[in-house]
Write a structure and sequence with these properties.
- Pfam families: 5_nucleotid (PF05761).
- Keywords: Acetylation, Hydrolase, Magnesium, Metal-binding.
- InterPro entries: HAD-like_sf, HAD-SF_hydro_IG_5-nucl, HAD_sf.
- It comes from Megalops atlanticus.
- The structure is a single chain.
- With about 300 residues, the protein is an alpha/beta fold.
- About 30% of the residues lie in helices and about 15% in strands.
- It has two domains: about 150 residues, Rossmann fold (3-Layer(aba) Sandwich), CATH 3.40.50; about 120 residues, no CATH class.
- The strands form four sheets. The chain has a four-stranded mixed sheet with strand order 1-2-6-3, with no helix packed on it. A three-stranded parallel sheet has the order 7-8-11, with helices on one face. Strands 4-5 form a two-stranded antiparallel sheet.
- Helix 6 packs parallel to helix 9.
C-alpha cells in the first residue's frame, strides 16, 4: 500500500468518517471485490522470517483504519503478529527526511493520533507518522547491532526506492509488475493463488472490455524498460534504457515481479544485484525483461 499524502503533518490525523467519499466506503463494504489475498507462500515466507529472528516492519502512507482493513483481508485477522513494528500515515517520502524536517512518531488510540509526538521510539508497536532516524535507533536496540541492515520492499520509485536508498541507505527491492508483461512469469504458487482468490466478477474483465492486463506492454508507449532514440534525420535508431529503467538500476538492489516470485527461495539465497560494473540485465529476478535482453543483444 503506497498512497503518498500531501499537506501539513504536524497536527494529529483522525480516521476517515464512516461513509466519507466513494472509494473507502466501497472497499469497506466489499473488500473482496477490490483486494486479492496474499498467497499462502508469501504468508509462510513472512512467518519463516519472523521465526528466523528477523525484525519485520510494515511502513505505509495509508491511515491505520485503511491499513487494518486491507491487511486483515490479504494477510488474515492475525496480521499484526507477523510484524514487530507497524507504521501508518508514514507520509513517504517525507518519512526519510532528516533534521529539522523530520516528523515525530505518534501513538494511536482507536485510530486517532495522539496530539503529542514522541521524542523517540523505545519499543516495538503500532505507530503513526515518524521518521527513519528514530526507527533506526529502535532497530539498533532490537537487533543489538550498531548498524542493522534493512531490506526494504516497495513498488514506488518516488516514495520507496529513491528515499530509502538515498537517505536511509537501506537495501531496496523494487516490485515491478511490468516484468510480468515482458516474459517474466509469476511463480506457480502465485498463479495457483490467483486462480483461487480472484473474484468471479473480475475474471476476464480486461479481455471482455478489449483491454490488456495492467502489466502488458503498451502499444502506444512501448516497453517500460527500453526505448529508441532517433538521430536528427530520424533514420538511425539507437536503443536506450528508459528513465524508469535507469532509476531501477540506480536506486534498487534487486527488482522482482511480485513477492510470490521469491517466497519459496531459501532465506539465505544470494541475489545478483544491480551494479554499474555489471551488465544492465543483472539485478532482475528471476530474469530480465525481454526488451532489455533484446537491447543488449543488438548492442553486442
Amino acid at each position: 500500500m503506497h498512497f503518498p499524502l500531501t499537506g501539513s503533518s504536524n497536527v494529529p490525523v483522525f480516521p476517515l468518517p464512516e461513509d466519507a467519499g466513494t472509494y473507502f466506503p466501497s472497499v469497506k463494504r466489499n473488500p473482496g471485490r477490490y483486494l486479492q489475498p496474499c498467497s499462502d507462500s508469501v504468508k509462510a515466507w513472512l512467518r519463516s522470517l519472523k521465526n528466523a529472528g528477523k525484525v519485520l516492519l510494515l511502513i505505509t502512507s495509508s491511515h491505520s483504519d485503511y491499513c487494518r482493513l486491507v491487511c486483515e483481508h490479504i494477510l488474515g485477522k492475525d496480521f499484526e503478529e507477523l510484524f514487530d513494528v507497524i507504521i501508518t500515515n508514514a507520509l513517504k517520502p517525507g518519512f526519510f527526511s532528516l533534521v529539522p524536517q523530520q516528523r515525530p512518531f505518534r501513538t494511536l488510540v482507536n485510530d486517532v493520533e495522539d496530539s503529542e509526538g514522541l521524542p523517540s521510539l523505545d519499543k516495538p508497536g503500532w505507530y503513526s507518522q515518524g521518521n527513519w532516524p528514530h526507527l533506526h535507533e529502535l532497530l539498533k536496540s532490537m537487533t543489538g547491532k550498531a548498524e542493522p541492515k534493512v531490506v526494504y520492499f516497495g513498488d514506488s520509485m518516488r516514495s520507496d526506492m529513491f528515499p530509502a536508498s538515498s537517505y536511509g541507505k537501506w537495501e531496496t527491492v523494487m516490485i515491478v509488475e511490468e516484468l510480468e508483461g515482458e516474459g517474466v512469469l509469476a511463480s506457480d504458487a502465485a498463479k495457483s493463488q490467483d486462480t483461487q482468490a480472484e473474484p468471479l466478477e473480475k475474471k476476464g474483465k480486461f479481455e471482455d472490455q478489449g483491454m490488456k492486463t495492467p502489466s502488458a506492454v503498451s502499444k502506444q508507449w512501448g516497453s517500460y524498460f527500453t526505448d529508441v532514440y532517433r538521430s536528427g534525420g530520424g533514420e538511425e535508431e539507437t536503443p536506450k534504457i528508459t528513465w524508469c529503467c535507469h532509476s531501477i538500476h540506480t536506486y534498487s538492489t534487486v527488482a522482482i515481479p511480485s513477492m510470490e516470485s521469491i517466497a519459496d527461495l531459501p532465506l539465505d539465497y544470494k541475489f545478483p544485484r544491480f551494479s554499474p560494473d555489471k551488465p544492465c540485465t543483472t539485478g532482475y529476478y528471476p530474469r530480465p525483461p525481454e526488451s532489455l535482453l533484446r537491447m543488449c543483444e543488438s548492442l553486442q
